[in-house]
Amino acid sequence: MRKFVERALHKLSKLDLDQIRNILGDLARENERLEVVLDSMNDGVFVVDTDGVLIMNNKAGERLLPLKSAETDSSRIWNVIGDKQIAAFIEKTLQDQESLRDREFTLDASGSVRVLSVSVLPLVQKGKIEGTLLHVEDVSEKRAREARLRRAESLASLTTLAAGVAHEIKNPLGSIGIHLQLVNKVLDASESSEAESLREYLEVIAEEVDRLNSIVVDFLFAVRPMDIQLQDSDLHELIQEMVDFVGYELDAADIELVLDLDETVPAMRLDEKYFKQVLINLIKNAIHAMPDGGELRISTENRSDEVLLRVRDTGIGMSSDVIHKIFEPYYTTRDDGSGIGLTLVYKIIREHMGDIAVASEEGKGSTFTVCLPVPQREQHLIGWNGDTT
Ligand SMILES: Nc1ncnc2c1ncn2[C@@H]1O[C@H](COP(=O)(O)OP(=O)(O)OP(=O)(O)O)[C@@H](O)[C@H]1O
Ligand SMILES: [Mg+2]
Q1: Segment-wise mean pLDDT, segments of 10 residues, the chain, 389 residues
Q2: Measured between alpha carbons, how far is 281 from 222 in angstroms, rounded to an integer?
Q3: Residue nearest to atom 31 of ligand 1 (CA)
Q4: Distance from the CA of 142 to the center of ligand 1, in angstroms?
Q5: Measured in angstroms, how far is the CA atom of residue 284 from the centroid of ligand 2?
Q6: Which CATH number do you get for residue 78?
Q7: Closest ligand 1 atom to the C-alpha of 327?
Q8: Which of 202, 320, 359, 384 is most buried by its number of CB atoms within 10 A?
């Protein structure tokens, strides 16, 4: 097409009006086709000139990276892009005349977490750099899938290993407990003056054995297959019950609670006993993240085929390194944490066919978003009467 246009331009003076009209018509159609191709892409494309002024972009570009209305036609792209973090990255990269591929950004737009991969590439025309091409791809699904796979793998390997180890530990612990009772019996029968202090020492040992036992039981509980019993439940009632439960702790930690519950959330199929554990773990983590007080916001949103539950705190936040590990069994950054809370949360949510995502910024806070499927009306009717399925 370009060659054809160049040839036409050469003999422009020899062409009559109809011929010029035809050429312009062809050009317009060609242009339109290119626009359609660009607008049909899922990835965002922005083209800027050598001064960084936006020349064109496709629809996906504007959907992924919403633009502020430009003050003037010659506004630089970094002044037009709404997201500050990405705008700053693009400004720096363009000014340093670098080309960078696949830099990822996590956006927490209206609570749903999105991961965008941005590439800044030189636009080369006839061997000369004529501007820059920005390529934006939404990799949220891809990253979520990878994370799910990693979690599922680590959970599966933990399950096999842990069940064996826990049993092995439980047996000697049982035996130690029995022998402690036997020693106590002997002491009871003896008249020795040291019996009293020995009894005290034995009591300490017995307490520690109990503690070990409960750790092992917790452990088994975390890894065993769950017998989830779904029933029609009022999610908001469960939330209210759990926030009442921690009311005193919230007051003591100077944390303000904000509930923003969507009235249209329908009855959900939940195992209430397990789901309360999800809530309590997320709430407790939020409390731990706000040692100097802050705001705990719990919100729900009905999206017709799914319900979102968000637990947001204004606490210490997490680095991206930490975010990648938090669902791993036994990962904790707290001195008194066991690191099993979120493993359990993840497992329970998966048993409910749901999913969980996290967005966090160090020093600003974190949001855990739980996504739960809403049962189809048919399933709903079959499962009604509170019976389990
Ligand atoms: N709301 C949050 N803000 C900041 N960091 C968090 C938040 N929630 C979880 N984390 C991080 O994730 C880690 C793992 O959380 P998880 O609930 O699995 O274990 P834990 O809270 O350390 O111990 P426990 O088993 O007692 O819950 C925490 O140690 C913390 O580093
Ligand atoms: Mg926890």
Answers
A1: 74 84 90 92 93 91 85 80 90 87 83 86 87 93 86 75 76 89 89 84 90 77 75 96 94 96 94 93 96 97 92 96 88 87 90 92 95 67 38
A2: 13
A3: 333
A4: 24
A5: 6
A6: 3.30.450.20
A7: 18
A8: 359
* CB of 290 shorter than 6 A to ligand 1: no
Lookup: tokens for 237:
């009632």
Q: How many CB atoms lie within 10 A of CB 227?
A: 9
Closest atom, ligand 1, to C-alpha of 311: 1
User: Are 161 and 206 part of one and the same domain?
Assistant: yes
CATH of the domain at 286: 3.30.565.10
Cβ(285) to ligand 1 under 6 A?
A: yes
Chain mean position to CA 183: 53
**Is there an atom of ligand 1 within 6 Å of 358 CB?**
no
Last residue of some domain: 87, 107, 138?
138
Q: Is the CB of 341 under 6 A from ligand 1?
A: yes
In short, whether 373's Cβ falls inside 6 Å of ligand 1 is no
In this prediction the pTM is 0.58
Q: Is residue 174 part of a domain?
A: yes
Smallest CA-to-CA distance from 293 within 316, 271, 267 is with 316
Q: Which two tokens stand for residue 24?
A: 């312009």
pLDDT tens track for 287-303:
999 999 999 999 999 99
Rounded CA separation 122/388 (Å): 59
Write the pLDDT tens digit of every residue in 198-250.
888 999 999 998 888 877 776 776 666 677 889 999 999 999 999 999 999 99
To test the pocket of ligand 1, the residue of 255, 282, 285, 292 to mutate (highest count of ligand atoms within 8 Å of its CB) is 285
Specify whether 52 is located in the same domain as 34: no
* Calpha distance 16→38 (Å, rounded): 33
Asked whether residue 358 is domain-assigned, the answer is: yes
193 and 319 fall within a common domain = no
Q: Is residue 389 part of a domain?
A: no
Tell whether 76 is covered by a domain: yes
Supply the range of the domain harboring residue 278: 231-382
CA–CA dist 31, 48 (Å, integer): 18
